[in-house]
Amino acid sequence: MEPILKARGLVKRYGKVTALDHCDFDLYPGEILAVIGDNGAGKSSLIKAISGAVVPDEGEVELEGRKVRFTSPTDARKEGIETVYQTLAMSPALSIADNMFMGRELRKPGFRGKWLRQLDRPRMEKMARDKLTELGLMTIQNINQAVETLSGGQRQGVAVARAAAFGSKVIILDEPTAALGVKESRRVLELILDVRARGIPIILISHNMPHVFEVADRIHVHRLGKRLCVIDPKDYTMSDAVAFMTGAKDAPTQ
Amino acid sequence: MEPILKARGLVKRYGKVTALDHCDFDLYPGEILAVIGDNGAGKSSLIKAISGAVVPDEGEVELEGRKVRFTSPTDARKEGIETVYQTLAMSPALSIADNMFMGRELRKPGFRGKWLRQLDRPRMEKMARDKLTELGLMTIQNINQAVETLSGGQRQGVAVARAAAFGSKVIILDEPTAALGVKESRRVLELILDVRARGIPIILISHNMPHVFEVADRIHVHRLGKRLCVIDPKDYTMSDAVAFMTGAKDAPTQ
Amino acid sequence: AGHGTSACLITKTDTNPFFVKMREGAEAAAEAAGITLRSYAGKVDGDHETQVAAIETCIADGASGILITASDTSSIVGAVTQARDAGLLVIALDTPLDPIDAADATFATDNFLAGELIGQWAAATLGDEAPNARIAMLDLAVSQPTVGVLRDQGFLQGFGIDLGDPNKWGDETDPRIVGNDVTAGNEEGGRKAMENLLAVDPSINVVYTINEPAAAGAYEALKSFGREDDVLIVSVDGGCPGVQNVADGVIGATSQQYPLLMASKGIEAIVAYAADGTLPENTPGKNFFDTGVALVTDQPADGVESISVAEGTDLCWG
Amino acid sequence: MSGDADNFEAAVKAKGAEAVAEFKDTRKGVLATVQHALHVNPALVPLFVLVASIIGFGLLLGSKFFSPFALTLILQQVQIVGIVAAAQSLVILTAGIDLSVGAILVLSSVVMGQFTFRYGIPVEIAVAFGLMTGMICGYINGWLVAVMKLPPFIVTLGMWQIVLAATFLYSANETIRAQEIEANAPLLQLFATKFQVGGAVFTVGVVFMVLLMLVLAYVLKQTAWGRHVYAVGDDPEAAQLSGVNVRRTLISVYVLSGLICGFAGWAMIGRIGSVSPTSGQLANIESITAVVIGGISLFGGRGSILGALFGALIVGVFTLGLRLAGADAQWTYLLIGVLIIAAVAVDQWIRKVSA
Amino acid sequence: MSGDADNFEAAVKAKGAEAVAEFKDTRKGVLATVQHALHVNPALVPLFVLVASIIGFGLLLGSKFFSPFALTLILQQVQIVGIVAAAQSLVILTAGIDLSVGAILVLSSVVMGQFTFRYGIPVEIAVAFGLMTGMICGYINGWLVAVMKLPPFIVTLGMWQIVLAATFLYSANETIRAQEIEANAPLLQLFATKFQVGGAVFTVGVVFMVLLMLVLAYVLKQTAWGRHVYAVGDDPEAAQLSGVNVRRTLISVYVLSGLICGFAGWAMIGRIGSVSPTSGQLANIESITAVVIGGISLFGGRGSILGALFGALIVGVFTLGLRLAGADAQWTYLLIGVLIIAAVAVDQWIRKVSA
Ligand SMILES: Nc1ncnc2c1ncn2[C@@H]1O[C@H](COP(=O)(O)OP(=O)(O)OP(=O)(O)O)[C@@H](O)[C@H]1O
Ligand SMILES: Nc1ncnc2c1ncn2[C@@H]1O[C@H](COP(=O)(O)OP(=O)(O)OP(=O)(O)O)[C@@H](O)[C@H]1O
Ligand SMILES: O[C@@H]1[C@H](O)[C@H](O)CO[C@H]1O
Ligand SMILES: [Mg+2]
Ligand SMILES: [Mg+2]
User: Which CATH superfamily is domain B31-55+73-93+146-246 in?
Assistant: First the structure.
């Protein structure tokens, strides 16, 4: 099988820091690929390079066999790649609904939408509320609340809900449950499984090993800006994975 | 035994949202107290009210039996209460060392420090580096790097290191390991145990149940802006705790 | 003169001592006649909108007449017409409107003439050296407001230099002109403009300045280069500090105008108009009432009429 | 499966049965309603200040101030600042600032005038050229800000000088007289057209200002483009990551701002009758003042454009009120200074109370 | 203990044995060194633009420009703007802006002059009063910003009008002439005192400007207060949470800014010889321009104060250079506009390359 998303030799430097050092990457159709690694290993840099948020200094990316060169996240979104960044990428002063539909707002049907370009707020609000309820984020009291007034976890929930609602080809989640509670994390994992069941592959960056081993089909171990190895969670234990990523054990030759 | 830190009837409202609803709180000397609860339950609001970051609308706080009224975090710090906020509270454009010593910079000895008020940068940098190494944050390459260029986890590590270095009476950690890797989280847990060994009590907010049950002496379960109950991790299972905080099970009467 | 009569004075700014004097004159005359005076001013020279708003306020306020030194002589005409239609007497002070008969009357100095006098004086003082003069022109602003243009062009005409377009400074081709620079009419601008032109050509020996603060600034620049004694500075206004500067040798000669007189005459005209509708009359042979201009210097030159510094001090802005 | 001995996550695996957790809202009554209204619609705050100041001057000055004539006079006096403030608001909402508004306004009006009178081009087309000039200046600003990523303050400061100098050079500092325009190209004075409603006198310019504000308020609130303007001003990086075309949004804002300044130039011809290259000098500072008094944050992304209209009116009310009360010019400036600070202080205070 | 069957965390429990993980730095050579220097010390960027423009004009104009005379003339021409830019930089570093600098400067100089000449107070004491006046104005600004939490733009806009009007009302717009000052109170002209080094002429004012910048650069970089200024500008909430007294820091910045403006007023007397209430009108916009060209962010917390000095000098070099190259006043005005934008564009470009 051909990878749906493939990267070769990605390099990204920030001044003296080399965040990505000739890094390779493969995502296969329909799979959940976990990316694990130490803090600062370059995981976020990798998915930023893949999703157009930064333009890599070297290397190339292929989507479904075609070479692509995303220069902005909008390019990637147009191709159906949806990303939840670690920084969440939300406009703090705008409402939850505004944020969820940012860049793909729904317009009213008929004249008002077509000619007056009026937004269909009730519909957007309803959809936003539904998505959040699906994630079990029930303490949100007001869908028109500014995002900056949400708790850390609520904010993350909104970002995940947005990606799940719109991703059509690939969904990338950079530590989606970091700030979430037990219940909310659970919902996100269920959501990830739902999405895979819809046939959409997912990239999941996480430091939560039990979660990774629970849902991932394959695990990409990232170390010092490179892909160290890819392992099958059925063949290795969590201890092995942690040992690889911290350098305590040598990576298996593949 | 008298609590070292005690709060009664705390209320904090944000417009229509009531984040704290007559909440009580007790921290005993030398203990690790975990605070758990759903996203948006009001955990961060609670510790903000205790540490002077917000002034509660109602209620009172006592430290070592004295009534205190902190109107800014500086007040609390002067009393030896050190907090890692969920938002981390760092100045993105400043360096790691600058951030760690913000508000309590070290000056050069002698004339240059006393009269020219010159900072002792080498000493601050060395101390900062030592603290980070203690936490196993080894991928940080440059102690003079701006905090905004750090990875999410590196940033959190810096904040935790700061609190551990300076807290003398109480240390409050709001989800200190949320963005941390396996190794780095482990270091933080060890650090928490070290700190307790030094006799300093700790408040730990976390969504990671295994961690909570591993280190906590008592667990404060927060729900809907209130303290629902306090449980002893030796008497209850993680499943019980999660059931209490999500409302699936009624709280034990105490 | 009647109870309840009121008049308005609208000046370009009220930070220039010239307009301060004008206001003092108007206030004194108004008090003498027992009428109320309201004063308005733009924020900066050229602030036209504030003047329009002031006229509207005067109409709303039910004033009998308006004295105005217009920042924009033709643009103000619309508002002035509105005021006259509402039955107010409008008198232009210092600066004629365009067209001049847009106002009921004009009490003014002839700014072109003021420039011409100092130009003639400078040329006569240089005598045989005039054909080799090196002239610096320190103007008001790049927007070239009319006062500045009139004085500048008057000076050049008086000096005997071909004007090019008389509505515009800076288009002259005479090689004696080293350059034009702008001063904003204050000391700071005067000094900087002088320095700039000296850097272009250190042999400058004649300096035209738009007004006396600019002249004082230019003098500081010359002084810092040790050139203060061999350069002729001429200016316009004849304010008390300016005349004092002529006495001290900072300025060679200045054209004196009489803002206080303009204002007091203006108030008298409004009082007369309010009483019985009398309209003011022009100076015979001119289409405005000329409040006069006089050259003040202690070094009179042949063929240029002038008054002494002592006389100038007595009259300064009287 | 995670290998937890205590499979605590199972406790939350059963989904659907949960009720929405709710905090209680304990505040009641009129005060709470007012607080809530202000909180939801922050433009009400400057409106409140405006109404209070009108009432204040009305009590102080009586019918002299509180007449349809005086009140509509204020509208006429603020129309240019109001129109320019609309342009300024858009730019400030994107966390920019436009110092070139005054210069663009003047250049547009000079182009309209000179094209008609110097080149004899039909006045309709000259007007179109004038508006286009504004748009082109705006486009250059926008391109420099969005594509070259230069700070808006510097870009528009430079443009201000460039456009102003170009205006003087092009127009040779000549004014086109009102009489001439009235006779040969009355369309240029369109915005001065008056109509009376009772004792109140409205001009096309005033109506244009109000309509412009209302339309922009609608667009900002009810269209995707409007939401993008806010998002870009709030956090451009987040906006970019969440799929907003930041570059296009910014350029469109500056172009629209330039166009509005072109209209302001046209309105200026109506207001002063003539085409004068020296007008509009204070438009920058006055429009920014109106915007900030109106409660729009200079850091972008926060505030309502109607606030800018109220901000302009607040300054207009104070200026006319103080003049009618007999304060002389310097005292008026001094008091306006005090009142600018006071207006914002009141605004801040109300916001705090209504938070 | 967590009940993991697979006790994966044990893998990282052994601590101490780890080596520091390191990425490789692959960049080498002179270019990399330059890039790194620019990266670490961003004030070098405007310095680079400055040097380039001096060389450019030097090549174009030869010894006319490239002489000690012309180059020190530039220093003298920028001294006031330079001093004010120091004050402005401090405020802008806290994410504020100070529009009242010019007005405070003038008021301070008027107080020095009037106290000496109107009241016959000894000149030393009059100078002290002048400086104190600046500090008081600064204190009021700071109090309104830090305690009342009003936006700095509005506070200083209001203060600008208030202080300026107060100056005119107090001074009755009268100038104190240079000759009088020279005769009776030469101390007021202290900053004009000259000394020559080769063909170069330096004044006390120029030396003061340079020393002030150096001292402030030291203070900002090497003291706790300086770090707090940056932290407050960067993110006031984070600064507050991490233990900075935001209120006190802000107030101290505005007071210091006011004091520096007082010194600028004193220097102004030296420069123009006289005390004139109409000076300093452009100090606001010129100082902000210098600061921004110098690479300090208007959003606070970023940039080096030495950049502001270089920014002021860049504008000075262009102004004189263009005049010497024969551009007339209007064209100079236009070209300065172009060059302001170009200078910042080059700055931006260098930063990007050196990132
Ligand atoms: N904008 C930037 N400027 C400079 N350095 C950067 C920048 N972004 C990332 N880095 C550096 O690149 C390295 C990789 O960062 P990255 O965010 O990709 O790590 P990560 O694997 O996602 O870590 P975490 O698990 O903590 O999120 C880090 O050393 C970081 O300091
Ligand atoms: N500044 C604010 N303005 C308005 N509402 C706020 C503000 N801060 C918090 N809230 C609201 O108060 C409630 C409690 O928030 P808080 O941050 O204390 O939750 P938390 O328990 O810390 O959640 P998490 O686990 O997600 O961090 C939430 O509903 C949140 O939306
Ligand atoms: O005549 C006056 C004064 O001379 C002043 O200096 C400038 O404005 C003019 O109108
Ligand atoms: Mg990351
Ligand atoms: Mg929280």
Answer: P-loop containing nucleotide triphosphate hydrolases (3.40.50.300)
